[in-house]
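Protein record

Derive tokens from sequence
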Amino acid sequence: MLFLPNAIHAGDYQKTAELVLRYYDKTYAFGLGKREESRVFRLRINDLLSSDIVSAQVLEFARQKGLTWKLSN
């Protein structure tokens, strides 16, 4: 098994990304577990390959949850 520094030095960027994301996912899940459930919002994304669809879904979700605000000049 390659460790992160070894993967980087070997130029194995796919393995590097996998290792970083695995660490990030564990850290993120740990942080979520420490939050009040009422402050955690869950959104199921329909199409991760389309940034336009993802952004529209996130904005609509935020509007439905009352999480949007107006920006002033």
Observations:
- The chain has two domains: 1-34, 40-68.
- The chain has a mean pLDDT of 83.
- The radius of gyration is 18 Å.
